[in-house]
Amino acid sequence: MKLPRLLCVSVAALTALAGYSQARPAPQDNAGPSQSDFIAAYRRAHDARDVEAMRKLYCWDGVTPEIKDITERYAYDFEDKIRDIKLTSEHPKDRPSQYAKDGVTYGFDLPVVLELVVEYPAPTKGAHNTNYYPVGVKDGHYLIAVMVPKQGVAPLAANAVAAPNRAAKAHAPTHTGQTSASGQSIVVPGETTLTVRLTQPVGERLAGIGGGAFSATLAESVEVNGVTMTPVGAVVQGMVTKESDYSPQLALSSVTVNGTVRRIETTTITFNQRIEYPAGTELSFKLIRPLNLQK
User: Fold this and answer.
1) Are 244 and 262 in contact (CB under 8 A)?
2) Phi and psi of 117, rounded to 5°?
3) Are 282 and 195 in contact (CB under 8 A)?
4) Residues 49 and 77 sit within 8 Å (Cβ to Cβ)
5) pTM as predicted
6) Pairing state between β 175-176 and 227-230
7) What are the pLDDT digits (tens) for 188-230?
8) DSSP-derived secondary structure for the chain
9) Is the separation of the CB atoms in 285 and 193 below 8 Å?
10) CA 11, CA 272: separation in Å to the nearest integer?
């Protein structure tokens, strides 16, 4: 079975990085590198199946031989024709900026400022497959960032890539409550994104300990029609599960609102069994079913 393209991270590190939001074209900075030149260079390398030209579009600072080998084997996928390609300032919300593997913390080798959005036709007629590649700037040129070991990094610093304006949003004036101005019950719709911050390390080992339960807090408030339904810091519980030889998965199981534990069902994140997300990691899930806070 054909492996999916990756966001220039270790295949053994991050998997199932789906659920990306619609991209918005990033403004061109006339004083910086040329976005059009970078896009054109990527398209030329891809269309010509030129591995050496593609290699020059990545930043290899501090990359281990293992990650470089995996990146070059799976990131240079020339099989499908590019349907569309662009740069955006909108980043995938469910992509951690760091992860831990075998006791080593990994992070991007460049500060991520943009995303290269590459769209390919999907097998289903009329559909398409979109991949995001983190992009930084080095020596006046855009380059695709790669995950590398980070020495002396605390267990996950602030995830500036996933939520660049979180601090302003968290302190903005909001109305907190469980009903609308008309007194009608407010339901948090299905497909709503819940971004959480882990309060403990989470890995495969939890699947066999205490039923796989882990704890987290909401990193972003959830608002419906201007009403804050679940505030930043709300306690969240989740589960790590593993079936037979398949990779472990994690999902959220409850959120506490106004002292009441509300059961929820969310999408899952599948990860490699050698990965452990440090405390402080931010992950995003989507509600599968609506959450009625009045029940």
Assistant:
1) no
2) -105, 115
3) yes
4) no
5) 0.51
6) parallel
7) 898 898 999 999 988 888 877 667 899 999 998 888 877 788 8
8) -PPPP-SSS-TTT------PPPP-BPPP-TTS--HHHHHHHHHHHHHTT-HHHHHTTB--TT--HHHHHHHHHHT---SSPPSEEEEES---TT--SEEEETTEEEEESS---EEEEEEEE-SSTT-EEEEEEEEEEETTEEEE--EEE-TT--S----TTT-TTHHHHHTS--EE-SB-TT--B-EEPTT-EEEEEESS-EEGGGGGSGGGEEEEEESS-EEETTEEEE-TT-EEEEEEE--TTSPPEEEEEEEEETTEEEE--B--EE--TTEEEPTT-EEEEEBSS-EETT-
9) yes
10) 8
Paired with 121 in beta bridges are 128
Can you tell me the distance from the alpha carbon of 279 to that of 155, in angstroms, rounded to the nearest whole number? 6
- At position 25, the amino acid (one-letter code) is P
Question: Tokens in use for 47?
Answer: 């269309």
How far apart CA 21 and CA 281 sit, in angstroms, is: 20
CB 281 within 8 A of CB 177: no
User: Domains of the chain by range and CATH?
Assistant: 35-149 (3.10.450), 166-292 (2.40.128.260)
User: How far is the C-alpha of 18 from the C-alpha of 65, rounded, in Å?
Assistant: 26
What confidence tens digit (pLDDT) does each residue in 227-275 have? 788 899 999 999 998 876 677 889 999 999 888 899 999 998 888 777 8
Structural tokens at position 74: 């799976």
CA–CA separation, 149 and 99 (whole Å): 10
